[in-house]
Amino acid sequence: MIRLNLLPKNLRRRVEPGWWRLLALLFALVVLGVLGLVHYTAYTELSLAKAERDQLQAEVEALRPFIAELGRLQEERKALEALLAIREGLEKNAVPWSQYLAAFINQIPRAGGRLEVALRSVSARALSEEEAARLAQEGTYDGKRVRVEFALQGEALSREALVRFIRAFETSPRFGIEFQGASLDEGRGLYTFSARVGATGGESGAR
């Protein structure tokens, strides 16, 4: 049997080929596959991130006692350093008075084994670093940087004995002297004098 389509061309039903339906189906499948892959990738990365976060939190919790102990040790170290600084400051500013006095007495000249100068009063004081530097800059004690200063009042048997006393401290590398004045007590035949003696740092006396 022969079928004839007698409708006009503009009213006839167009018969499309079937391959475009296949392409549309494949495109939809590709889109769904891509969306599924993206979703799976995002889900996997999120799961890994959560697992890593949980692991880090577990490690932090495990290390928390050690962190607390480390903090305590650091606080103890700071406290110990503060105590050491205080001790060093005290040791730095400590003055070995017995050694200074022994060196000072040994520096007084003798004649025939006996002292020619009698000290009626002696006072001593330690100088600060700033004061010692200022006195040295001003040329006091021949520019020596002294640590201890003795203020003296005494009596000498003779003028020569007084001169020997002054020179003993002037020529010593450890001492310096600032002579303040002397007068003759004619009634007793003694020279009364006053002076200041500075001693530099060091533990052994030097004549």
UniProtKB/TrEMBL annotation:
Ranked from the top, the taxonomy reads: Bacteria, Thermotogati, Deinococcota, Deinococci, Thermales
Residues covered by the PilN biogenesis protein dimerization domain: 97-200
Give the domain of life.
Bacteria
Q: Which Pfam family, giving just one, matches this sequence?
A: PilN_bio_d
Q: Which InterPro entries match?
A: Extracell_DNA_Util/SecSys_Comp, PilN_bio_d
Name the Gene3D superfamilies on file: 3.30.70.2830
This protein is called: Tfp pilus assembly protein PilN
